[in-house]
Amino acid sequence: MSDLLESALNPRSVAVIGASENIHKIGGRPIHYMRQHGFGGRIYPINPAREEVQGLKSYASLAALPEAPDLAMVVVGGEKAVEAVAQCAARGVKSAVVVASGFGETGEAGRAVQRAMVDTARAAGMRLYGPNTQGLANFGTGAIAGFSTMFVEVPPADGPVGIVSQSGGMSAMAYGLLRGRGLGVRHVHATGNEADITVSDLAWAVAHDPDVKLLLLYLENIADPELLARTAAYARERDLPIIAVKAGRSESGQKAASSHTGSLANEDRTVDAFFRHHGIWRVRDPHAQALAAEAYLKGWRPEGRRLVIISNSGASCVMGADASEEFALPLAELAPATRAEVASRLPGFATAENPIDITAALLSNSGLFGDVLPAVAQDPAADLFLINIPVAGAGYDVEAFARDTAAFERSTGKPVVVAAWQDSVAAPFRAQGIPTYANENDALGTLAQLASHTALMRKPVVAWPAGTAPALPAGEGRFLNEAQSLAVLAAAGVPVVAHRLCRSAQQAAEALAAVGAPAVVKACSGDVPHKSEHGLVALNVATAADAAALFERQWAKLAELGAAQEGVIVAAMRRGQREFMVGARIDPVFGPVVVVGDGGKYVEALQDVAVLLPPFATADVTGALRTLRIAPLLEGVRGDPPLDVDALAAVAVAVGQLIVAAGGAIASIDVNPVLVAARGEGAVVVDALIERGG
Q1: 595, 599, 603, 607: CA torsion to nearest 10
Q2: Taking phi first (over 0 means left), then psi (-120 to 50 degrees means alpha), and beta for anything else, what does residue 86 get?
Q3: Rounded distance, CA 232 to CA 218, Å?
Q4: Which pLDDT score is estimated for 256?
Q5: What is the rounded CA–CA span in Å between residue 558 and residue 528?
Q6: Which stretches in the chain have pLDDT values below 50?
Q7: How many Å apart are CA 78 and CA 100, to the nearest integer?
Q8: What is the CA radius of gyration of the chain?
C-alpha cells in the first residue's frame, strides 16, 4: 500500500472540517464512529463555533492544529469545500475526503471546479477522495472518515471482506447484506466522483491487506483499467477472489465506431471480456455478491464441477438433477464401490444412485447424513455437494444433520451447501458455518459460480511474443482499400483468398484466367469501404469477357461516386461450410479488443459474437465460440461435417497480434467473411477492411 493510501486507510490523525456535536449529522458521525470502533489515532474536530465537540477539543481552523493530520474529512459544502481543500493542501494534509456534492456530477462548470481542486491537491502532494462521496471506513483500524447510516442500522464487525465502490449507497448495501449473513467486513470505501482516487486505486490498496480474503467492487466506469488489471493479477497470486458489479457505461465506451467491429464490441461486452481476462467474476448486483460470499470465505477452490445431490425427497432429487443441467454442473458418476457402500447404509427402498434419495427414513434414523456423506466423500468423481431438505419438522434431528454435515466439510474440505427454506431447518446449518440457502437455485448458482471462478483464476496466463509493427501503405485516407488490407493481413500470416488488383479491363480478363472461374469481381477504393451497398460486387463471374465488362462498369461507378479509382479486384470464388467474422479495434478505455463470431451480411443485425482481450490462446477463442448461439453448428448438424474452429481461432489470434503490434497505427480491422471449411480443411479471409489509427 502506498504511503498516501496508507494515510487514508490507516491514518495516525484525522481532522473533521465541519465537525458537529450531533452524532446523527454528517459532521458528527465520523467522530462518533471512530470513538466507538477503537480508532487509536488522534481526532481533531474543526468547528470555530465550539470549544468542544463530542468531548474532544475543537479547533477554529486547520492552521490551529498542533500537527498536520494525515487525513482530513471535508464536511462543509460549496465554495467552503473548495477553500477547505486548498487549506488542507497548504497545511500538509496527505489525504482529503470531500463529502460535498455539486461538482463533476452537475455538468461542465462543476467538473471545472473539481479539476481545479485536484490540481491544488496534487501540486501539494495530497490525494483527494470524492467529491460526492460517502467516505472511507476501515474497521480493522477504526479509521472511519464516512457517514453511512448503515453502520448504525447494522453494527460493524471486523472481518475478511473488503468493499470498494463508486457509489456510497451500493457500498452500504453490500455491507448491510454481508453483515445480515453474519459476515464481518473490514473495508467499506466509496470513491464518489473519482476526481482523483478511483476504485482501482483503492482496490489495489485493499488487495494488499493480508487479512482480506474476498474483495467486492461496484463500478460505473473503469477509470484506470491498467491498475485494476495489476490488482487482479496480484489478487490471483495470493488467491484473493474479486467479485464485481459493473453498472452503466463509460462515456468513452459509448462512442460509436464506424466499423462493424466498433458496433459489435460494445462497451458492456468489452467490460465482460476485461473481467474474464483478468479473473474477476462479474455479477448483477450486491445481492449476488453477498449470496456467494460465504462460500468463497470457506476457502473452497473446487477441482471440478461434478455434483452430488443428497435429499430426503425424491422430488427434490429430480428437480435438483434438472437444475444441475441449467448450471452446467454434471451429476457425478459414482464408482460401483461407492454406490455399494451407500446402499449398505440406506434402507432397501432408498436410492444409492446420484442424486441420492435417503427418503423419509431420515425421520427414524437421524444418522443417515453422517453415514452417507463419508461414503461418498472419497469418490474422485465428487467435486461439489448439495444437501436439499425440502421439509423437516418435529421428530427430525436437524441439529445432528447439521453437525454431521459440518464434520464432513471440515474433514474433506469439499464444497457443500444446503438448500432449506424452513428457518428452523436452515438455522442449525448456518450455526455450523455451512452456506445455506432458501432454494436450490441459489445453492447451485453459488456452487457453479465458485467452480467457474476458481477455474478462471487458475487459468494460465497467455503471453504473446513481441511483434513487428506492420508496414502500412503510404496515404492519408482513413481506410486502406481492400487489396491493401488483404496484403497487410497476409504479411501477418493470415490466410487470404487468391486475388489480383487490376487497373484495366485487359488485366481483369487476365486475372480471371489466373485465379480461375468462377470468380468475384469487386471495386477497390478506400473511399468506399462497404462496396455491396453500391452494387460494386459481382459473384460467379465465369468468363474473361464478363470480367472485362464488369471492370469497365465498376470503374465508371467509382467515378460517378467521386471515389478514388484504385483498382478492381478479381478474386477466386471460395466456399466454406459457414461464414464467420473476426474484428479488432482500439477501445478508448481497454486498448486492443478482438471480436469473433457469426459472419456474413447479417452480422450487425444478429450480433452473435464474443469479445476477447489480448493476449489470448486459440483455446480461448474456441471456448468463446462455444458460448454463441451458433455453437451447435460447430460440431456439424444434419449431416454437415464439424467446422475447422481451430483454423478460425488461429485467424483471430493473428488479427489480435497484428493490432497489438501496430501500436496504435491501426484503429480497427474488419475481416468478414472468414470462410471456414470442414475440420482440418482450414479457413480463408475473402474480404477485409483496415482503418488507420492516429
Answers
A1: -50
A2: alpha
A3: 15
A4: 35
A5: 8
A6: 1, 250, 252-263, 265
A7: 7
A8: 31
DSSP for 239-301, please give it. T--EEEEE-S--TGGGPPPSSHHHHHS-HHHHHHHHHHHTTPEEESSHHHHHHHHHHHHTT--
pLDDT computed for residue 373 by the predictor: 84
**Residue 95 grid cell:** 489525504
Residues 6+ apart with CB under 8 A from 626: 634
Task: Please give the Cα distance from 207 to 327 (Å, whole number).
Answer: 30
Q: Which residues pair with 309 in a beta bridge?
A: 386
CA distance 341 to 210: 43
d(CA 54, CA 436): 43
- Residue 454 vs residues 66, 115, 227, 241, 279: alpha-carbon distances, Å: 51, 41, 22, 8, 9
Residue 9 and residue 18: Cα distance in Å, rounded? 21
- List pLDDT tens digits, range 267-286: 888 999 999 999 999 999 99
Task: Report the length, in residues, of the chain.
Answer: 694
Query: Whole-angstrom Cα distance, residue 514 to residue 496?
Result: 16
Query: Residue 136's closest CA among 95, 196, 78, 182?
Result: 95
| Residues 278 and 243 sit within 8 Å (Cβ to Cβ) | no
Q: What backbone torsions phi and psi does residue 423 show, to the nearest 5 degrees?
A: -60, -35
- 418 Rama class: left (phi>0) / alpha (psi -120 to 50) / beta: beta
pLDDT at 502 (0 to 100): 97
pLDDT in tens, 379-422: 899 999 999 998 887 777 889 889 989 999 998 899 999 999 99
| 3-class state of residue 64 by DSSP | helix
